[in-house]
């Protein structure tokens, strides 16, 4: 796997950083949002901000699947896990995210609920096969990247006639969230001007774009006159994308560019898209933590697959759960506050005792900042 | 096969038999398990007396005692098993004080129904590890719990050692200016175990690095007795070990990522799963911190030993009131190497 190191080459990085410094123009602002948590993680993990001139500001976006799940839906999962005979399978990160009144799946597990941490949805399917007497539910979250595997597994469950398996579907879509963010940061919008949150460009998703392609981002340029550069998750990808964005900003351009051509095509992965269309349909509305209710922004399992849809198999009344009152996750997810601007960051809210969802997953802005960047504040 | 001792009508069925509750009951069945399995494997003068305790000769110097419980799943993994791991783990805990490990005690908690064949494999592996290390298991105990109340086998080992005169090693002794050394590549054990877990079904060539490190420590101390701290970065990995030392010594650390050795397959598997090798467990590596002027001598001593071939100087101790462990990334940026919170979890984005 020499491949990985090629994208982490320090010397190439220094060369790119030097070019960025040369090309940044004094009279301009370069506030760039990386949409994806994967980018946030790479930026913090490799200390990319240290290589950038002060004028280039990176703003973390909402693209962390664990972070945007509203507490109410998390609480529904906790309630489901506590039912008799149910085994709830979940990605590890979700176990620590606070639901209503700070309850978590981990606490439910300690109380005796059967919650299993899995690495992929197919592990959940294996558990269902092995435990015919139990109802196995997979707690599905994620953007377009994790959706095709969910579709594959639901189709497989139908093929096998596996009647003790279902999916609690919380899959969401990237473009509507990006649209909400851009509307928020538009001049004259509700965004707090003191937070200096007007955007000048976006770093577009990596893995998501391999599925949906680069075409669905055209509205960013067309409707919001913003440049967007799709970038891979490797640190050099991020630097390269920043340079491309700076060049667009300098010339007043607003285009969708693709830095991640080794994996992303304009039309994306057609096969994966077909699979998604076969199993899922749009939800007219869906609540996002931080972004509120967004139209056509999430997927539900089609009625043909009702048997494998946990929301249909079990009665799951919608739950409204308020976030902790000190929590600034909503503002952090919208990019109008930085993690360190939250009053409880690093004090009442730490990765060991997260108050908000952004402090849990490695892709969460607060967690990434806490783990990798805290020393900067201490020095300041 | 040994002649059947008169007290037992049959040999233990070490091929197809299972642990039964009577094996922990203190009666004949237990005596047989001890005699035919544990004694046969660990055989030494202390055990042969079959007394409740081992009478050990007195010795000069400061004694060190350490204990460690082992609950690994799976029990067998590439490069080792819970048996040798339980011997190495405690020997290493003793050795990290600079001591020469002398004796071990071993306690087994067995689950009813556990195959005797597996138990024999584990016990043989412990016996071999203890013999190779030259540290005998001089006393022990066995308990059996009902089916469903254990996870096959839990092993607790306790070790005693003696510290040579003039050696003063403690996690609270790191000083600004000290050099930080690691004896080899990170993450082999943790990734070997993880790759074997049933729900991660891919092939990987990664072998656990489990090994007894007292020989390496002795070689190091011989040329650099002024070493300040030693640690084996087991669970929680290098990142956690450095944070512990930073906190106990009231100092900060600065690492260079490019200098930290990680084997390619480990790096690749970590990458695939979104894990950081800095937090993955090792069972055969040591971290040494000592005066910069000793660094090159210490490095040479480590590299001259079969268990330290890939040793490297990876950073230095600095004065820092926050106790931050910072790292210059391969990329030229800086990041914090924080305490691990919870378990390291794979990425899903
Ligand atoms: S510090 Fe905690 S509460 Fe504040 S925004 Fe971040 S995750 Fe939310």
Explain the overall architecture.
The complex is a heterodimer of chains A (380) and B (349). Chain A has 380 residues and is α/β, with parallel strands linked by helices. Chain A folds into three domains: 20-63 and 174-258, Rossmann fold, CATH 3.40.50.11750; 67-172 and 268-313, HypD, alpha/beta domain 2 (Rossmann fold, 3-Layer(aba) Sandwich), CATH 3.40.50; 329-373, no CATH class. Chain A is built from 16 helices and eleven strands. Chain A has helices at residues 2-6, 10-23, 37-45, 65-68, 71-81, 105-111, 121-130, 147-160, 174-184, 207-212, 218-224, 235-250, 270-279, 310-313, 329-334, 365-379, and strands spanning 30-36, 56-63, 86-90, 114-117, 135-142, 165-171, 201-204, 228-230, 256-258, 280-288, 292-301. In chain A, the strands form three sheets. A five-stranded parallel beta sheet of chain A has the order 2-1-7-8-9. The longest helix of chain A has 16 residues, at 235-250. Chain A is globular, with a radius of gyration of 21 Å. The mean pLDDT of chain A is 90. In chain B, α1 (28-42) packs parallel to α4 (116-133), α3 runs parallel beside α4 (116-133) and α6 (214-223) runs antiparallel to α9. In chain B, the strands form three sheets. Chain B has a seven-stranded mixed beta sheet. Chain B folds into two domains: 21-163, PurM-like, N-terminal domain (60s Ribosomal Protein L30, Chain: A), CATH 3.30.1330; 179-336, Phosphoribosyl-aminoimidazole Synthetase, Chain A, domain 2. Chain B contains nine helices and 13 strands. Chain B is of the alpha+beta class. Chain B has helices spanning 28-42, 45-48, 82-95, 116-133, 188-196, 214-223, 237-249, 264-273, 295-303; strands at residues 62-70, 76-77, 80-81, 100-111, 137-145, 153-163, 179-182, 229-231, 252-256, 287-290, 312-318, 325-328, 334-336. Chain A binds chain B through residues 1-2, 4-5, 8-10, 13-14, 17, 36-38, 41, 44-51, 63-66, 91-93, 96, 117-119, 123, 126, 141-143, 145-146, 207, 235, 350-352, 361-363, 370-375, 378, and chain B through 199-200, 258, 264-265, 267-268, 271, 273-274, 322, 324, 326, 328-336, 338, 341-343, 345-349. The structure holds iron/sulfur cluster. Residues 327-329, 332, 339, 342, 344-345, 349, 355-356, 358-359, 366 of chain A line the site of iron/sulfur cluster (SF4).
């Amino acid at each position: 796997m020499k491949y990985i190191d090629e994208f982490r080459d320090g010397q190439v990085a220094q060369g790119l950083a030097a070019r960025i410094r040369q090309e940044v123009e004094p009279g301009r602002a370069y506030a760039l949002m990386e949409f994806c948590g994967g980018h946030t993680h790479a930026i913090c993990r490799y200390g990319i901000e240290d290589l950038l001139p002060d004028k280039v500001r990176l703003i973390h976006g909402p693209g962390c699947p664990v972070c945007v799940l509203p507490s109410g839906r998390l609480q529904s999962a906790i309630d489901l896990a506590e039912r008799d005979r149910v085994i709830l399978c979940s990605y590890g990160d979700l176990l620590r995210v606070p639901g209503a009144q700070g309850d978590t799946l981990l606490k439910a597990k300690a109380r005796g609920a059967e919650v299993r941490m899995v690495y992929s949805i197919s592990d959940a399917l294996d558990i269902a096969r092995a435990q015919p007497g139990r109802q196995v539910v997979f707690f599905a979250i994620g953007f377009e990247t994790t959706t095709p595997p969910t579709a594959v597994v639901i189709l497989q469950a139908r093929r096998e006639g596996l009647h003790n398996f279902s999916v609690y579907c919380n899959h969401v879509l990237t473009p509507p969230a990006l649209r909400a963010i851009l509307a928020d940061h538009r001049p004259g919008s509700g965004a707090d001007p003191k937070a200096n949150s007007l955007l000048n460009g976006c770093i577009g998703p990596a893995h998501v774009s391999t599925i949906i392609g680069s075409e669905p981002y055209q509205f960013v340029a067309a409707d919001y006159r913003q440049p967007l550069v799709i970038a891979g998750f490797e640190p050099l990808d991020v630097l390269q994308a920043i340079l491309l964005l700076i060049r667009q900003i300098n010339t007043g351009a607003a285009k969708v560019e693709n830095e991640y051509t080794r994996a992303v095509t304009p039309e994306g992965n057609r096969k994966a898209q077909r699979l998604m269309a076969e199993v899922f349909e749009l939800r007219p509305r869906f609540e996002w933590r931080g972004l509120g209710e967004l139209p056509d922004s999430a997927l539900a399992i089609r009625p043909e697959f009702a048997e494998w849809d946990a929301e249909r198999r079990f009665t799951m009344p919608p739950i409204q759960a308020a976030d902790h009152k000190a929590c600034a996750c909503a503002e952090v997810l919208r990019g109008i506050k930085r993690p360190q601007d939250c009053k409880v960051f690093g004090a009442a809210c730490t990765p060991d005792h997260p108050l908000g969802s952004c402090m849990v997953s490695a892709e969460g802005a607060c967690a990434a900042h806490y783990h990798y960047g805290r020393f900067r504040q201490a020095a300041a | 096969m040994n002649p059947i001792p008169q007290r037992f009508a049959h040999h233990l069925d070490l091929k197809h038999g299972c642990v039964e509750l009577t094996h922990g009951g203190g009666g004949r069945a237990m005596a047989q398990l001890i005699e035919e399995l544990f004694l046969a494997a660990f055989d030494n003068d202390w055990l042969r007396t079959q007394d409740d305790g081992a009478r050990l000769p007195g010795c000069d110097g400061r004694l060190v005692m350490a204990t460690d419980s082992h609950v690994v799943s799976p029990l067998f993994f590439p490069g080792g098993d819970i048996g040798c791991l339980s011997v190495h783990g405690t020997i290493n805990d003793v050795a990290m004080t600079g001591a020469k490990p002398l004796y071990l005690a071993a306690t087994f908690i067995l689950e009813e129904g556990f195959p005797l064949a597996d138990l024999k494999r584990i016990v043989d592996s412990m016996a071999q590890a203890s013999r190779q290390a030259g540290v005998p298991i001089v006393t022990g105990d066995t308990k059996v719990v009902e089916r469903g109340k254990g996870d096959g086998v839990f092993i607790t080992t306790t070790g005693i050692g003696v510290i040579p005169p003039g050696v003063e090693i403690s996690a609270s002794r790191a000083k600004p200016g000290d050099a930080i050394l690691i004896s080899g590549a990170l993450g082999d054990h943790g990734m070997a175990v993880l790759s074997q877990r049933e729900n991660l079904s891919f092939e990987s060539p990664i072998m656990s690095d489990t090994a007894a490190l007292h020989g390496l420590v002795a070689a190091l101390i011989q040329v650099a007795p002024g070493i300040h701290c030693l640690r084996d970065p087991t669970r929680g990995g290098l990142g956690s070990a450095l944070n512990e030392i930073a906190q106990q010594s009231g100092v900060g650390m600065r690492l260079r990522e490019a200098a930290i050795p990680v084997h390619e397959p480990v790096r690749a598997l970590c990458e695939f799963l979104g894990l950081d090798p800095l937090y993955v467990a090792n069972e055969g590596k040591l971290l040494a911190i000592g005066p910069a002027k000793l660094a090159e001598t210490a490095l040479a001593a480590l590299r001259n030993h079969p268990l330290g071939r890939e040793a490297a100087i990876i950073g230095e101790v600095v004065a820092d009131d926050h106790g931050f462990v910072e790292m210059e990334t391969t990329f030229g940026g800086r990041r914090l190497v924080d305490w691990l919170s919870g378990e390291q979890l794979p990425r899903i984005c």
